[in-house]
């Protein structure tokens, strides 16, 4: 009679960490593999349509490059405006400092007992007037340059704003965007909008500093005679 052998069942413990890793890998595979619906949505996205169309992709790159150039030009012109402002301020300060020293010297000369000083009052007045006119001319030249650069900055900003709208429209429409469309320039936009400005008022507001300096220069001319002969 054959003896029965005892059968032993050996339980092999399963590593729980290994199980968790397998589950995580399965979840990643489920996430990374897109469903057909997601693929369809991605393919219908305007940016994917642009990437598949060489003409639209080239146009997008060109417009983005122009946007970058516009921004650089605007920043460069704005820094130039700041430097012109500082130069105008320095000229105005020099105008005031010069006349301050000038009238101090005139007042000290008027305190002397020399009567011939009063007869030659026109010499310091002419010097004051000539110096004032030179400084006013320099200020006017700087102001003219300032407003010229300022108009350029305004025009560059309008063109950049128009180009940004076209880029956004291209990104939203995708391949349905009309390639023959061009950004409207700042001049065309300005002509389409009605603006009524009275030129004398605009000119007066832009060159107010020059007008004030001219008034002071004309006032200083008779004041020199009053200082020399009045005391």
UniProtKB/TrEMBL annotation:
| Region named Disordered | 1-27
Tell me where on the tree of life, at the top rank, the source sits: Eukaryota
List all membrane-crossing ranges. 88-109, 121-147, 207-228
Ordered alphabetically, the record's keywords are: Membrane, Transmembrane, Transmembrane helix
Biased-composition ranges, Basic and acidic residues, are 1-22
Please give the PANTHER family that the UniProt record associates with this protein: OS03G0453550 PROTEIN
Can you name this protein?
Answer: Uncharacterized protein
């Amino acid at each position: 009679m054959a003896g029965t052998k005892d059968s032993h069942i050996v339980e092999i413990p399963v590593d729980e960490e290994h199980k968790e890793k397998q589950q995580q890998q399965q979840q990643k595979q489920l996430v990374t593999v897109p469903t057909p619906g997601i693929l369809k949505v991605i393919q219908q996205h305007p940016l994917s349509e642009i990437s598949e169309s060489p003409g639209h992709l080239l146009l997008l790159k060109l417009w983005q490059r122009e946007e970058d150039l516009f921004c650089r030009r605007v920043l460069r012109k704005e820094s130039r405006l700041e430097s012109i402002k500082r130069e105008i301020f320095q000229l105005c300060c020099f105008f005031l400092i010069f006349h301050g020293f000038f009238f101090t010297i005139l007042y000290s000369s008027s305190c002397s007992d020399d009567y011939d000083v009063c007869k030659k009052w026109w010499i310091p007045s002419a010097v004051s007037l000539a110096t004032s006119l030179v400084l006013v001319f320099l200020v006017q030249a700087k102001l003219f340059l300032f407003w010229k650069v300022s108009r350029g900055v305004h025009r560059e900003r309008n063109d950049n704003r128009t180009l940004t709208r076209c880029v956004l429209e291209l990104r939203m429409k995708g391949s349905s965007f009309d390639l023959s469309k061009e950004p409207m320039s700042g001049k065309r936009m300005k002509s389409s909008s009605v603006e009524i400005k009275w030129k004398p008022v605009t000119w007066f507001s832009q060159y107010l500093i020059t007008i004030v300096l001219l008034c002071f220069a004309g006032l200083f001319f008779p004041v020199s005679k009053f200082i020399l002969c009045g005391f």
